[in-house]
Amino acid sequence: MGPVEHTLFAFMFGLTACGLVGSAMELISGRRLAFVEPYVSPAHILRSLVATACAGPLMFANEALDAWRQGRISAPALISCGCTATIWALVLGVALLDIASKAGILLGSADFSA
User: Fold this and answer.
1) What separation, in Å, do the N-terminal and C-terminal C-alpha atoms of the chain show?
2) What pLDDT was estimated at residue 63?
3) Is there a contact between 25 and 55 (Cβ–Cβ < 8 Å)?
4) Is residue 107 domain-resident?
5) For residue 113, is it within any domain?
6) CA of 26: how far to CAs of 30, 81, 102, in Å?
7) Lower CB density within 10 Å: C or N end of the chain?
8) How far apart are CA 9 and CA 64, in angstroms?
9) pLDDT higher than 60, residue 112
């Protein structure tokens, strides 16, 4: 694969992971995904960080769409938010692929013979 295919694969991987995590969080809590309780809480910093890192692009897109519908941001600002969420999903995909690659190498080098 070339660099374009690698980039597209990382983006799709990040978008899929974001969608799965975001949907699971919405199903468990019964609330719309956003940067509010119960997803982001100062009392649970680590949980909030993980939730924001994994489902952040969807949270950001939801918040931007709400702001646009209420007239708080303009169409160019909405497009900017969409670009930011896209780049965030790409970076998430790259990070998750790197973690999976390193985990695969570590697990592949282990000797499980009896």
Assistant:
1) 38
2) 93
3) yes
4) no
5) no
6) 5, 21, 30
7) C
8) 25
9) no
Residue 80, in any domain of the structure: yes
One-character DSSP codes across 64-103:
HHHHHHTTSS-HHHHHHHHHHHHHHHHHHHHHHHHHHHHH
pLDDT digits (tens, 9 = 90+) for 17-71: 999 999 999 999 888 888 888 888 888 899 889 889 999 999 999 999 999 999 9
pTM of the predicted model, to two decimals?
0.83
Q: Is 101 part of a structural domain of the chain?
A: no
Cα→Cα distances 42→35, 46, 84, Å = 12, 9, 24
**What are the tens digits of pLDDT across the range 93-106?**
999 999 998 887 77
3-state class percentages of the chain: helix first, strand second, coil last, to nearest 5 = 75, 0, 25
Q: Cβ(39)–Cβ(25) under 8 Å?
A: yes
Q: Which domain holds residue 49?
A: 9-95
Number of domains the chain contains: 1
